[in-house]
Amino acid sequence: MFRNQYDTDVTTWSPAGRLFQVEYAMEAVKQGSAAIGLRSKTHIVLGCVNKANSELSSHQKKIFKVDDHIGVAIAGLTADGRVLSRYMRNECINYGFTYESPLPVGRLVVQLADKAQVCTQRSWKRPYGVGLLVAGLDESGAHLYYNCPSGNYFEYQAFAIGSRSQAAKTYLERRFENFADSSRDDLVKDALMAIRETLQGETLKSSICTVAVVGVGEPFHILDQETVQQIIDAFEIVGEQEGPAAEPDAAAGQGAAAADQGGSTDEGVAPMDI
Amino acid sequence: MPKQQANWSPYDNNGGSCVAVAGADYCVIAADTRMSTGYNILTRDYSKICKLADKCVMASSGFQADVKALQKHLAARHLIYQHQHNKQMSCPAMAQLLSNTLYYKRFFPYYSFNVLGGLDNEGKGCVFTYDAVGSYEKVGYSSQGSGSTLIMPFLDNQLKSPSPLLLPVQDAVTPLAEAEAVDLVKTVFASASERDIYTGDKLEIVVINADGIGREYMDLRKD
């Protein structure tokens, strides 16, 4: 994409029928550090890569609890993400106050999408520069949605956004058919493996990633660093040895589901492209 | 036609009494479970006690519809606090919030007479007592509701805590053991049920201490 005479205002169409400002906003999402989400029938796991400005600073908070049954991971302008999280929290609280029951995720993402659309049709506003992976549980099951700056939203079995997310998406594409029946622990493992794909060679440690889980009987919460490091240690012997690593992993007693995963790992996943 | 006065009131009084007693490392909050209107009983089994936070419990007598609305309002505010601060509200913080919430409706008040009880940040028991528009004070013990005129003098007799206006500043906390405080509360309600028609049926007692929140019930006179 390059500068042209139709990209100054969000309210100006290009002759080809595009709104360039909205597309530029979606570029902002691609610049943010990676966030991934995947779901089974009963659980959803969100993960993200922590980016810190320098070694001296703390990292950006990219995963937010919205309610006991809903959480969100963001990529892009984290300030916009923070503001939208606050909006989502308020909506959940107000709905709970009026109806004494949890806000269905499907309703929340529509409200979020409508809010984003407003910013694409006002000359004095700009689109939100953040993509949101909304994970939520309601009566109809476990859901994962992706909300764009454009005002569109889609439901996914698994998805990744942000920089180098294509590597994670490739990993998820190969394995998503197994996710629906995965156990919660396998889902977390898959999330960490997907995060590792985006790191392109860098060692996966709990200090550079954040993982959160929500599921049936499990309110949304962020896993603490120790737990995450233990899971990483359990499956990662050496970063590149995907094949042999799968065998001891299955033997580590993760049950039949892991054996299935182990099988598909051997044939499905190619070593990381470095 | 002679001048007429309004004969519809937005308020009703559902009666009942509440008590709270603070100890060195515990707090006892109790209320009866009778809900009435006029000279009738609506139900014998209605809880006037609400848990606002991990270490903070509120008992309210008065107009229960307003009490319910107030409880919901505080619960929503507490959720926002938890999202922003990543922790539960302390009892003194909740006490201030309750006061502000009540005063917000200074010109159409919540008809709710509250006592707030819990543990402060150091684990010591604390009790806060309110009027309908948010004036509050930290005390060692308090009672509100239809039986408070009968209960308060008795508590004064047993527990009188020194005035906070005196110098040197003395502790507002009761030197009773937890079991003794619970016994005292039971006695107090048994007496109040004798003479106050709006107090009776069942007594709900909530005890907050380092182990968490415990609840017990005691039968009262049903007449």
Automatic annotation (TrEMBL), chain A:
Question: Which superkingdom is the protein from?
Answer: Eukaryota
GO cellular-component term (any): nucleus
Disordered: annotated segments: 243-274
Ordered alphabetically, the record's keywords are: Cytoplasm, Nucleus, Proteasome
Q: Where is the Proteasome alpha-type subunits domain?
A: 6-28
Q: Biased composition, Low complexity: where in the chain?
A: 243-263
User: Which Gene3D superfamilies does the record associate with it?
Assistant: Glutamine Phosphoribosylpyrophosphate, subunit 1, domain 1
Q: Which Pfam families match?
A: Proteasome (PF00227), Proteasome_A_N (PF10584)
**Do you know which InterPro entries this protein is assigned to?**
Ntn_hydrolases_N, Proteasome_alpha, Proteasome_alpha-type, Proteasome_alpha1, Proteasome_asu_N, Proteasome_sua/b
**Main localization, broad class:** cytoplasm
A Gene Ontology biological process term: ubiquitin-dependent protein catabolic process
Q: Where in the cell is the protein located? A: Cytoplasm; Nucleus
Name the family the entry cites. Belongs to the peptidase T1A family.
Record text on subunit structure and interactions? The 20S proteasome core is composed of 28 subunits that are arranged in four stacked rings, resulting in a barrel-shaped structure. The two end rings are each formed by seven alpha subunits, and the two central rings are each formed by seven beta subunits. Component of the 20S core complex of the 26S proteasome. The 26S proteasome is composed of a core protease (CP), known as the 20S proteasome, capped at one or both ends by the 19S regulatory particle (RP/PA700). The 20S proteasome core is composed of 28 subunits that are arranged in four stacked rings, resulting in a barrel-shaped structure. The two end rings are each formed by seven alpha subunits, and the two central rings are each formed by seven beta subunits. The catalytic chamber with the active sites is on the inside of the barrel.
Biological role: The proteasome is a multicatalytic proteinase complex which is characterized by its ability to cleave peptides with Arg, Phe, Tyr, Leu, and Glu adjacent to the leaving group at neutral or slightly basic pH.
What is the name attached to this protein's record?
Answer: Proteasome subunit alpha type
What organism is the protein native to? Answer: Hibiscus trionum
TrEMBL record, chain B:
- Give the domain of life: Eukaryota
Task: Tell where it localizes.
Answer: Cytoplasm; Nucleus
Q: Which UniProt keywords apply?
A: Cytoplasm, Nucleus, Proteasome
Which PROSITE patterns is this protein grouped with?
PROTEASOME_BETA_1, PROTEASOME_BETA_2
Q: Name one GO cellular component term.
A: nucleus
User: What processes in GO biological process is this protein linked to?
Assistant: proteolysis involved in protein catabolic process
Q: How does it assemble?
A: Component of the proteasome complex.
Q: Which family does it belong to?
A: Belongs to the peptidase T1B family.
Function text = Component of the proteasome, a multicatalytic proteinase complex which is characterized by its ability to cleave peptides with Arg, Phe, Tyr, Leu, and Glu adjacent to the leaving group at neutral or slightly basic pH. The proteasome has an ATP-dependent proteolytic activity.
Protein name from the UniProt record:
Proteasome subunit beta
Q: Which organism is it from?
A: Hibiscus trionum
Q: What is the lineage of its organism?
A: Eukaryota, Viridiplantae, Streptophyta, Embryophyta, Tracheophyta
